[in-house]
Amino acid sequence: MTPLLNVRDLACRYRVTGKRGETHWLHAVDGVNFTLDAGRTLGVVGESGCGKSTTAKLVLGLQPASRGRITFAGEPVSATRDSHWRAMRRRMQMVHQDPLAALDRRLTVGEQVIEPLIIHGLKGGPQTPRERALALFDAVGLRAAMFERYPHELSGGQRQRVVLARALVLDPELVVCDEPISALDVSVAAQVINLLQDLQGRFGMAYLFISHDLKVVRQIADEVAVMYLGRIVEQGAPDDLFHTPAHPYTEALVSAIPTVGQRDRKRIVLAGDPPNPVDRPAGCAFHPRCPRATAICRSEVPPLRPVAEGRLAACHLVPAVSARSAAA
Amino acid sequence: MLHPVPGSTGAAPPLLSLEDFTVAFAQGAGRTRVVHGIDLTLQRGEALGIVGESGCGKSVTWLAALRLLGKRAVTTGRVLLNGRDLSGFSERELADVRGGRIGLIFQDPTSCLNPILRIGTQIGEALRLHRGLTGKAAEREALRLLDRVGIADAPRRLRQHAHELSGGMNQRVMIAIALAGEPDVLVADEPTTALDATIQAQILDLIRDIRRDTGMGLVLISHDLGVIADLCDRVAVMYAGRVVETAATQDLLGSPRHPYTRGLLAALPSLEGPRVRLTPVGGTVPSPDAMPPGCAFAPRCAYAEAHCGNGIPVLQPAGTGHLSACRRLDALMGEWQRQAAREAGRHDPVVQDLDWPNRDRQRELSA
Ligand SMILES: Nc1ncnc2c1ncn2[C@@H]1O[C@H](COP(=O)(O)OP(=O)(O)O)[C@@H](O)[C@H]1O
Ligand code: SF4
Ligand code: SF4
Ligand SMILES: [Mg+2]
């Protein structure tokens, strides 16, 4: 079966100007590979600046890649903004952190849910656009009375529901969610997480779910990719990956999460900040902060390779398994 | 409205206490009250966590107590520092308290620092104001403080500006400035919320270390129960401008005795245990100008009964050093204890007696 989304060797660099006017290259995404099957959820975690949001924009063709290939339902995605791109964009939608910024304050939220149907010249099947939009209001748990309200008249959680209704009105196969619940309070976040799961169960779209919050990603993802400085350093099933991390960075990230459960757990505290992607360290980019780094880590880039069944890691210390024993 | 608080029996007055403290904001011709009579005590060296959703009055309480909200905020009740009422303090004395006896740090360190002044100048200012240090002595102390908060290459950092430093580094600078006055207590409002996970861990460890070395007290305001659990001895849960539950951290997390606290815990996703569907608290925090009558949590409470709307529940004993403001406390404690006994061993030990009426609707998500 061809995956819904197939990303090969994806890279994106930005030209930045230094203090003395000199040019540097900032490698925001640097050789990322993953696939996502229809109806599934891939979670992407990592700290700010590791390339999560850039990956999201590249996948949607909102921004050109400097290297690599993206295919969606077997067709190449390019950032050309032509009719082909628009037709494809209808099938891939985006939800991000700040629903207020995503909505137009001068239009009622109902109009904004209808809007994509009109832009794409769709009738929405046997329903009128208004009926279709109202059906989605119901699906995301908004009362019909909210239809005529303006964004600032709604709470943060309600706004995020509107954004979801608008993303779903075109019946997309992929929804890219970039920190969709980071601005919400605990209880409202739980409502939206449940809603995302229910909507997936009902409409069957795939999620590329980006978050810095490991607990949320564990709750929602079928598979998780951990990014560090523009690359995936570990990938696998959420419980395996979070309970027995293979990569030292994943291990530190998991141990950094304060939990209400294990109070006196020993924490691995990494020194320093994540390095600036402009001067990405040679070898393993994590080596200046890695408690386990050895000489080889400073010179050779560890490839992302199978280390156990269904698990990939990019670390010299984690022995690779052959493809055959990985499948066994 | 005073209640027994653990540890408050000694002769010395508590370091800091709020007594029947209220805050209202002038709004048009009238006033909207956002904090409705809070009693809180912080003993010397204690770490108190304040938790609740946004808009519950966590920040406003402490900012108003230190008179940092200007004239629009009107307060009643008392704020006592070592037994002395702050309302009798002059502006000058208050300025001495803030940054002197009481250090303050906030969520967004980069915007709290002055963008046009060097880091060294800002630490130097705090040292001059609160310790009377100037010149070489101030510079030596500034270097020591930066070193204390784990900033390497201190001489160079002193000459830099906030925008040249990362968010985590700026929060360290804010902590250094707070420490300049050798405070008895640090009030930290969401100090790690804007930081990445690995940097948050660094800052939490730093605050813990400093407390171990200096015995400094801590008021930690956070929406994140994990962060609170990490640092605090005791927790107060706020809802709609009131404290609805307070207890030692272990007791509060292990046997929460207020429906709101139980709701917050059940809504949290976890990294451990089986993946179960989350149990959100429906609805949202009421806005201060549309407060429901009686128990403000009633419209969202799974246990609410008609009489919950009659009069405001007061804090009452719910265990040793444990207070909860719920009208149905007695009935619910029995119910929760029976459920806990039934379910013992079936759940994560920390939340094992945590039960929500529709738990049986939770389905295992991992398949
Ligand atoms: N300057 C202000 N003027 C009017 N209302 C305010 C002001 N600051 C805060 N509030 C209101 O006070 C309530 C409590 O706010 P806050 O203390 O910030 O809550 P928390 O810190 O728990 O998120 C909220 O309803 C908020 O909207
Ligand atoms: S390759 Fe070396 S530096 Fe990189 S994570 Fe592994 S041990 Fe650490
Ligand atoms: S008083 Fe009633 S509504 Fe309020 S928390 Fe208790 S049971 Fe719920
Ligand atoms: Mg606040």
Report on this model:
Chain B: It is found in: Cell inner membrane. The complex is a heterodimer of chains A (328) and B (367). With 328 residues, chain A is α/β, with parallel strands linked by helices. Chain A has a single domain (5-91, 172-327), classed as Rossmann fold (3-Layer(aba) Sandwich), CATH 3.40.50. Helix content of chain A is 32%, strand content 23%. Chain A has 12 helices and 12 strands. Chain A has helices spanning 52-59, 83-89, 99-102, 109-119, 129-139, 156-168, 186-203, 214-220, 238-243, 248-256, 295-299, 323-327; strands spanning 5-17, 23-36, 41-45, 67-72, 75-76, 92-96, 174-178, 206-211, 223-228, 231-236, 305-308, 311-313. In chain A, the strands form 2 sheets. In chain A, strands 6-7-8-3-9-10-12-11 form an 8-stranded mixed β-sheet, with helices on both faces. In chain A, strands 2-1-4-5 form a 4-stranded antiparallel β-sheet. In chain A, helix 4 (109-119) runs parallel beside helix 6 (156-168). Chain A is globular and about 65 Å long. Chain B is globular. The model of chain B is unreliable at 1-8 and 348-367 (pLDDT under 50). Chain B has 12 helices and 12 strands. Chain B is of the alpha/beta class and 367 residues long. The longest helix of chain B is centred in the middle third of the chain and has 18 residues, at 197-214. Chain B has 2 domains: 16-236, P-loop containing nucleotide triphosphate hydrolases (Rossmann fold); 256-284 and 291-366, no CATH class. The interface between A and B is large, with 41 and 46 residues. The structure holds adenosine-5'-diphosphate, iron/sulfur cluster (SF4) (2 copies) and magnesium ion (MG). Adenosine-5'-diphosphate binds next to helix 1 of chain B. Adenosine-5'-diphosphate is lined by residues 25, 34, 52, 54-60, 288 of chain B.
Small-molecule components bound: adenosine-5'-diphosphate, iron/sulfur cluster, magnesium ion
CATH topology of chain A: Rossmann fold
Overall outline of chain A: globular
CATH superfamily of the largest domain in chain B: P-loop containing nucleotide triphosphate hydrolases
According to DSSP, the number of beta strands of chain A is: 12
Proper CATH architecture of chain A: 3-Layer(aba) Sandwich
- Name of the top-level CATH class of chain A: Alpha Beta
| CATH structural fold name of the largest domain in chain B | Rossmann fold
Strand content of chain B: 15-25%
Largest sheet of chain A: 8 strands, mixed
How are the strands of the largest sheet of chain B arranged?
6-7-8-3-9-10-12-11
- Number of structurally distinct domains of chain A: 1
Order of helices and strands of chain B: EEEHEEHEHHHHHEHEHEEHHEEH
Instruction: Assess the beta-strand content of chain A as a share of residues.
Output: 15-25%
Widest beta sheet: strand line-up of chain A: 6-7-8-3-9-10-12-11
The total strand number of chain B stands at: 12
**Which two chains have the most extensive interface, and how many residues on each?**
A-B, 41 and 46 residues
Family (chain B): Belongs to the ABC transporter superfamily.
Membrane topology (chain B): Peripheral membrane protein
Keywords (chain B): ATP-binding, Cell membrane, Membrane, Nucleotide-binding, Transport
Pfam family, one (chain B): oligo_HPY
